[in-house]
UniProtKB/TrEMBL annotation:
Belongs to the dus family. Its cofactor is FMN. GO terms for molecular function: flavin adenine dinucleotide binding; RNA binding; tRNA dihydrouridine synthase activity. CDD domains: DUS_like_FMN. Catalyzes the synthesis of 5,6-dihydrouridine (D), a modified base found in the D-loop of most tRNAs, via the reduction of the C5-C6 double bond in target uridines. This is tRNA-dihydrouridine synthase.
Length: 299
């Protein structure tokens, strides 16, 4: 499961593991905000003993700040640190973070080496380049391996493609051919067939799914042949329960609303229900709407 800002909180990661995902990440955690002890940032680091594998994603541009946070108590519970070298959001890129590192391999290498000093397993998530006329997936992957990364995930789009367009399978394939560490392919997977095409066209060691997992978390059981006998309604109710246990009501409402409306994105005629959903001010009201949305499904 991919890191997704606003979605891959502890309850959602738990769900993905339960449905068959091999590895899940927190959403990106900004090392600068963490250094200033920001409450909302610290909340992103919630995990428990029950989480199968604990992987945090950090984003930053200063190698020393990343090292400091990688060694800090904040992330003591996590065994894997993934470094975000792919986020295209202008604010982050302007300050040399995320996909900006695709244009500064020296700094990117320095970040990985410094992060490794934490003694944790370090992985990298990146893209294939900044622009389509300069694609560098293989060179970047080699740099990651040489700097000490244990795995690299490649989103097969360039920074300027943002989240649209067909991923460049050949770029991922070239990266696979030059490194010995596992390469995970990401981008545009919206079905089991898409995942098979991605695996076959790139020779990657695995696939990472992002947006489609919000629409259909069962994709993990489909891909791993894991038998799951649960309705969507039951899943949502469990998500409400676990989120309420670990987070306050404001966060729980916000997360559940966002999750349900993502699931309903492709459902026709769902606008009225979505509007009612967004008006819900407490958990009981949300439960009523869920009853209406999923009335065709049994418990
Ligand atoms: C709402 C949203 C939030 C995202 N947050 C993160 C993030 O925190 N860290 C990261 O590395 N990528 C993030 N991404 C990128 C995804 O992990 C993934 O690389 C991208 O969506 C392509 O995969 P897809 O085509 O399967 O959606 C985000 C994407 C979206 C749409």
């Amino acid at each position: 499961m991919a890191p997704l800002a606003g979605y891959t909180c502890y309850p959602f990661r738990n769900l993905c593991y339960e449905l068959g995902a091999g590895l899940c990440f927190t959403e990106m955690v900004n090392v600068n905000s963490l250094r200033y002890n920001d409450i909302a940032t610290k909340r992103l680091l919630l995990t428990t003993q029950k989480e199968k594998y604990k992987a945090v994603q950090l984003v930053g541009s200063d190698p020393r700040a990343i090292e400091q946070m990688a060694k800090s108590d904040y992330i003591a519970d996590f065994d894997i640190i993934d470094i975000n070298m792919g986020c295209p959001v202008p604010n982050l890129v302007k300050s040399g973070q995320g996909s900006a590192l695709l244009g500064d391999l020296k700094r990117a290498s320095h970040i990985i080496k410094k992060c490794r000093k934490s003694g944790k397993t370090v992985t990298v998530k990146t893209r294939i380049g900044l622009k389509e006329d300069k694609l560098i997936a293989a060179e970047f992957a080699k740099m990651c391996e040489d700097s000490g990364a244990s795995m690299i995930t490649i989103h097969g789009r360039s920074r300027n493609m943002m989240y649209k367009g067909t991923p460049y399978f050949d770029q991922i394939e070239q990266a696979v051919s030059v490194v010995n560490i596992p390469v995970i392919a990401n981008g545009g997977i919206y079905s089991k067939e898409d995942a098979d095409i991605m695996m076959n066209s790139t020779g990657a060691d695995g696939v990472m799914i992002a947006r489609y997992a919000l629409e259909n978390p069962f994709i993990f059981s489909e891909l791993t042949n894991k038998k799951v006998d649960k309705s969507f309604k039951k899943i949502i109710n469990e998500q409400i329960k676990i989120t309420s246990k670990y987070y306050d009501e404001v966060y729980t409402l916000d997360y559940i609303k966002r999750f349900i409306s993502f699931c309903m994105r492709t459902q026709k005629g769902s606008n009225k229900l979505k509007q009612s959903l967004y008006k819900c001010g407490n958990i009981d009201e949300i439960q009523n709407i869920i009853g209406l949305i999923f009335n065709k499904e049994g418990e």
